[in-house]
Amino acid sequence: MINWTNLAAQAFNGLVLGALLALISSGLTIIYGTLGVLNLAHGAMFMLGGYAGYVAYSYTDSFIVAVLAGSLFVMLVGVAMERCIIRHFYDRPDEDQLLVTFGLGIVSVEAVRYFFGSLSKPLPAPALLTGITGLGFMFYPTYRLALLGIVAAALLVLYAVLYRTRIGMIVRAGIEDSVMVDALGINIYRVFMLVFGIGAMAAGFAGIVNTPVVSLSPDMGESILVQAFVVVVIGGVGSFRGAVLGGLIGGEIISITSMINPGYAYVMLFVAMTAVLVLRPYGLLGTSGRS
Amino acid sequence: MLTKRPFLIELLTALGLIIAPFVLPHLYFAPDTINRILVWGIFGIGFDILFGFTGLLSFGQSAFYGTGGFVAAYLLTVANLQNVWASLVMGMIAAAAVGYLVGLIALRRTGIYFAMITVAIAEVFFFVEFNPLSAYTGGENGLPGVPTPQLNLAFTTIQFNTTPSMYAFLAFWYFVGLVIALRIVRSPVGTVLRAIRDNPLRAAAVGHNIHAYKLTAFVIAAAYAGFAGGLLGVMQGFMPPDAFMFDTSGQLIMQTAIGGAGTLFGPLVGASLWLFLSDFLQGPLQLGSTWKLVLGVVFVLLVCFLRHGIVGGLADLVRLIRRLGPAGAPAPEADTLFEGSEDCTPTPMRQAPVSHGTADIVLETKGVSRRFGGILANSDIDFRVRRGELLGIIGPNGAGKTTFFKMLTCEVHPSAGRIVFEGRDITGLDVTAVCQLGLTKSYQVNQLFSRLTVRENIVIAALADKRGAFRLDLFRSLHGVTGLDARVEETLAMVGLTARAGHPVSELAYGEKRRLEIGLALATSPSLLLLDEPLAGMSPRERTDTVRLLRSIARGRTMIVIDHDMAALFELVERITVLNEGRVLTEGTPEQIKRNAAVQEAYLGGVMAA
Q: Chain A contacts of B130, Cβ < 8 Å?
């Protein structure tokens, strides 16, 4: 016997998680698409966003300041990382890029652990968004509902930046052919730096707005990174729309499976990824363009 | 580096393993730490074959480490199997079997996709161990009570239940694992794995089934991981669930990168440094959990500045000293003159009978077209090559010459039409299969195995012909491949690179690289050889040399040459096909082509005709 209210609640949870995954994965995918670097420190950026927001909140008691400061901080970390380290790895093999971003992720996690300890830190939702809201057929935590809106808005902003602005056009051109963009007289390295910053910020923003739901710990980025990988493989590397679609699919799979048996959530996610790899090797919305 | 003196490395390793327990404690290594280093070392040997030799960076090795460990521990505890040795082997087999299945999925893609998929797989295994299978694995408690091994000799029983005796047990297995790995690395399979690391595209194009070889490396790595996992449980008397954690894969990767990938010893050296520092930072320095931060920073710095790790760095240093030292005579003049090979007897073609009539048609295309989106690169091409012919294809830039070649070698599949080679329809086959049938090409842009020597390059290509697309001769030496050495020497002589055989490709002059490019194609002993702009970018002298080389190769072979150097081509070939805007414009002897008005118009836009 299926409990419909329960299923609806889980489907909603899946939507929230899916939107978050979509945002994180689109950051990952535009970095990879443009720079050709898979950022294994992306999960750490998600975690850093949460902690930066936490610090800002503990000084100002303002959720909005926390979100802004957290995102901005992660963007700066991303820019600094690209400028100082990643840039020197564009000409090196893929494996070296993976190794160095992996190392940077570990350094970030351990640095946070050093300063904040391993115990998890809570960050309350703004007073306006606490409590529960009646949706007619069920009651749902207000903040999660708001979270869905916040993340959807962030995705729209990212979409607008990518598809409606000059810089977005350059980034998309860079995804197609960065050498050509460079040849057209656009300083591609400045674009790379910016893209890395924006991509990191997407993860950091997701990290901070998600904190009232989960509370912070230094290791929180790891499982998110794994989920983002699956999302990107399902959606197609380098595709913004693919990341959104993959994120929603991934979020629903995790939530619905968790309702039945949490132990199988990852198994189902993995089954979906395998099915996509077999049927559409380049992802649902990916193309074989960039190898 | 690994082949100069037989058994020297094995001997030194054995000595090192015997001396280590007496020396290392004086360097503040705890006895227990030394044992753990060996387990990581065995785990790492397999991983190095996968990552260092094949170039596949897997983030999922914990899955196989855990599988092997838990299967062995389960057999020894719950299933109450008494025999530790048998359990270890069964754990290894289970890990290898799982590795095979996982490899089938993960190896569908390469590069970062492969990395992401392996991360995901490792995470799945972790969750499966914790939840659905917790009845068998003990979930987060792991499996306690794993017995220590013992060896029943006729007169006595040796117990490996103390730290020093456990060292002997582990050192024995490390040695066995290393000897096996050395054999694999020196075997034809090992050579092909390195070829895949350097240039997978060309490795497939010279006729190796690279997917099967990658899967082989993946299974080998899984088997080593599984065995090491089993040893972990036996060593600790307890199989910990964190063997399955992503951190395990991460630590393995970092240790291997720190020690030096592609050296087999790198993982052991990396593990020594890692575990020593972790003990040292947590013990005497009282850093607590900060040790991992320090090690993370060390790792990032090493990746940035010491690209080949500690062992690789030492090897580079030795090479540098040798080169600078008085013993190392200055390298021979880089620009060795190509002496020509007119006297060289060419390798006979695979199927030599020169017959006449329709049977002597080697290759035929019927109505072949290729469309890229809105662009028709090739349109309705009918083309024939007779046995023993030397054919030229010319055409202005963008005429579709290279696309046509790619379709002949099945790198690109035609949108319409059929290609028949040696009476067999090859439309839709892949490049590896076609090369195995005897049709291959030298590339317009060099596709070499750039980290290997000239000889190794030729060996790789010749192996594909001598052994077929895939063979699992893991323990055969390269010299054991019948006819390989002769083929390699012959090919080297033919392309005039015998004197440069021991040099890495990166040291070659451009003209030499071009000749090696042709040599790679030749070494597969093709019955039809395609040459895509063999003269492009050459100096006048290199050009003359290469034309002479082509002429000598052409004897007893069927060849098609694309080039823009009309003078050279007209002199070289017997018949020419002219392509223009994706279609066959005309064909004929060089004399006919020279006088053809349509050809002049295609090239010069009608100026001559006016």
A: 263
Provide the 10 A C-beta neighbour count for residue B220.
Answer: 25
* CATH (one of 1.20.50, 1.25.10, 1.10.1200, 1.10.3470) for A4-279: 1.10.3470
Give the mean pLDDT of B283-295: 80
A-proximal residues of B, 431-490, CB under 8 Å: none
Reduced to 3 states (helix: H, G, I; strand: E, B; else coil), residue B379 is strand
CA A128, A133, A135, A139 torsion-angle sign: positive
Q: Cα angle vertex A234, ends A233, A240, to 5°?
A: 85
Which amino acid does the sequence have at A133?
T
Q: Taking each helix axis as running N to C, give the angle between helix A42-60 and helix A188-214, from 0 to 180 degrees, rounded to the nearest 10.
A: 60
pLDDT for the residue A291:
39
Q: Which residue of A has its CA nearest to B306?
A: A96
Closest chain A residue to the Cα of B252, Cα to Cα? A99
What is the amino acid identity at position A84? C
Which residues face B575 on adjacent strands?
A: B391
Same domain, B501 and B484: yes
Q: Is B257 on the interface with A (CB under 8 A)?
A: yes
- Paired with B588 in beta bridges are B576
Q: How many CB atoms lie within 10 A of CB B355?
A: 9
**Amino acid at residue number B275:** L
- Report whether pLDDT(A280) > 90: no
Interface predicted TM-score (ipTM) of this complex, two decimals: 0.89
Q: What is the pLDDT of residues B430-477, one digit of tens each?
A: 999 999 999 999 998 999 999 999 999 999 999 999 999 999 998 888
